[in-house]
Give the backbone structure.
Amino acid sequence: MTWLRPIAALAGLAAIAWLIWEIGPHALWAQLRALSWRWPLLLLPHTSVAVFDAAGWRYAFPGRLPPLPLLVAVRLAGEAVNVTTPTATLGGEPLKAWLMTRARVPFEDGLVSIVIAKTALVVSHLAFLGVGLAVAFWQAPAASALLTVMVALMAVGVVAVGGFVWAQQRGLFGASSRVLGWLGLGAGAAGHLLRLDDHVQAYYRGQRGRLGLSLLFHFLGWVAGSLEVWLALAVLGAPVSFATAVVIEAFASAIRSATFLIPSSLGVQEGGFVGIFVGFGLGAEIGLAFGLIRRVREAVWAALGYGFLVAWRGARGAAPGAGP
């Protein structure tokens, strides 16, 4: 079924081309020209997102806390792989754990931190979406159909996150070892995977303070993403309040999360921005312009992540016995 993802990517690109044609290249170009020399400013808000998310990951480690600058760089490298490869945003996660072994962090600790941080990320995202929905209902500017879709996405997200947390309590890695055993591949890995389950459950029992900090910093990362919306719309000549920027970012991130199987949510993300912006009376051309601006930002930060990855290669040796 691997052929489905390239087809989905091509369909996404076709959808973007169709949106440009429908909205009108001239109208879109007029919006983008409004950026002028100021477009590099739109790359800056993501700096705070990167720092907050790295801080959230830092407090997901069960042992000693790695330095924050290192985590920022490693996380950027892993996220670059996530957004540029057909791995459903998961391919960069084990890479992060492996890169941390080169900073003398045991691979098992890295994997545990990845599971905890991913849990904190999605739980905080649901909280952020809840804030966005509350603000949207309070302001009542959005189309009722849009609000209905977001409520449905949040309901699905709550069920999915609940299942993910339940699986961790029941033994997420142990279930993986059983699957490998059925395939005749798990004999050597079963013990390691069961130990990971013990470490994850021990973290939840004994590191509730760290878990709370991880949730807090990841939530602040979602809120910081709204700065990009607020600044971009101000530059594009369609300023909105920060509260409205929070709603737009919450709804857009929900659409992207729901379509994670499509590489980089190509086409869906741009169409989502158009629908959200129209729902808020901001115009389809502004929504598509912002969608393309975000693509540029993603490309720049992914390139930075790959730059860290290249610089990291061979910089230090891995910890003895550590590795995937």
